[in-house]
Amino acid sequence: MKEFFSIEGPFMQFFAKLWDMIILSILFCVCCIPIVTFGVSYSALYYTMVKAVIPGEGHTIRTFFKGLRQNIKQGLGLGILFEAILVVLFFSLYVVFINDLGLLGRFFGIAFVISLILVMTLMAYAFPLAGRFHNSIGEILANSLLIAVGSWKETVSMFILEAVLLASMAFVLFVPFIVLFVPGVVVWMQAKMLEVLLIPYMREGGEDNETETV
Question: Is the dihedral of CA 42, 46, 51, 57 positive or negative?
């Protein structure tokens, strides 16, 4: 029983990781306030999960800000790209739903919903890959699509988690406690799945572009 409650025991390790997730969730939400920094913050959050939280090594806050600095170019580019696409899709859906366009409206409505699902699926992979590897934006998008198609079962889970993350950010003002848990827990779950999927890609040479360890 003593070992269970010791600093190295599972009880204390659990609460240590939970505390890290709370800190990271708050940092993530604060850094997302400018909106255009969503991608950078997302990539840094994933980077910190992989490099510090999951292995239980390194300083969480320091690692997060290190991830921000490393991914500023990729994260900003991806973030602005995806945000622009999402704005267009949501606006298009709004226009379709408020106007009675008949069969044509239903066709475009379905097309926009499918496009939204595809974009959110790519986001679920692209931002973590930006935090994990040094690649161009084009390479990140191509690799995201490749992994998503090749691991479709995991992709369903990744999409659901992405939807939860985006919904939590949209409603954070109405349900403030979301700030404490949702981003950290969601990205932790994504990391646990995605890191397994990345093993064969790293064996094929992906390690050359891997972000440095803490």
Answer: positive
